[in-house]
Amino acid sequence: MKTCNSCGKCCIKYSNGALSASETEIELWEVFNPNIAEYVKNGEIWADPSSGKLLELCPFLRKTTNTKSVVQYTCDIYYDRPDDCKYYPSNVREMINDQCEMIEASDLLDLTKAQRKLDIIMVDSR
Ligand code: SF4
Ligand code: SF4
User: Fold this and answer.
1) Torsion from C-alpha of 12, 73, 89, 81, nearest 10 degrees
2) Ligand 1 nearest-atom number relative to CA 88
3) What is the mean pLDDT of residues 106-121?
4) What distance in angstroms lies between residue 99's CA and the mean position of ligand 2's atoms?
5) Positive or negative, the Cα torsion across 69, 92, 119, 85?
6) What is the per-residue pLDDT for 16?
7) Is the CB of 11 under 6 A from ligand 1?
8) Distance from Cα 31 to the centre of ligand 2, integer Å
């Protein structure tokens, strides 16, 4: 199990209408982060502030290039992102299905061990 390399696959896949935010998260955004709250419509994320339609891609996902010219993705609202984002990845099987790049070949040989490694890596994120 490797650490996250910011490949962006999870954000790209799940920000297309598959993320949710709690009422508390939305209320906090309304008070402290109106720039985030404007992308909420009827409790759903992420929606176009003008049309109210759900967006295909998270508006806070930023494409960058690292020093080795590798494309990476960052989150503009990292510290204020929804719990849904903070808790990904939580399950090794889901990661395999999503082709998460934290997964290594050795993880496939023992999913229980891989899950334990993941839980340790994710302690700081959750
Ligand atoms: S809020 Fe941040 S972590 Fe969540 S989908 Fe958007 S870019 Fe990714
Ligand atoms: S798919 Fe996995 S490696 Fe890629 S950004 Fe998401 S958590 Fe990180």
Assistant:
1) -90
2) 3
3) 96
4) 8
5) positive
6) 87
7) yes
8) 30
Angle at 57 between CA 48 and CA 15, to 5 degrees: 105
> Who's near 85: CB < 8 A, 6+ residues apart?
11, 19, 75
pTM of the complete model: 0.92
Closest residue by CA, ligand 2 atom 4: 7
DSSP 3-state assignment of 47?
A: strand
Q: Is 100 in the pocket of ligand 2 (CB under 6 A)?
A: yes
Decide: 81 and 88 in contact? Cβ < 8 Å: no
pLDDT beyond 90 at 81: yes
Instruction: Verify whether ligand 2 is closer than 6 Å to residue 89 (CB atom).
Output: yes
The predicted pLDDT at position 29 comes to 98
The full set of domain ranges for the chain reads 9-124
Asked if pLDDT for residue 126 goes beyond 80, the answer is no
Q: What is the pLDDT of residues 49-68, one digit of tens each?
A: 999 999 999 999 999 999 99
User: Does the beta carbon of 121 lie inside 6 Å of ligand 2?
Assistant: no
Contact 103, 11 (CB under 8 A): no
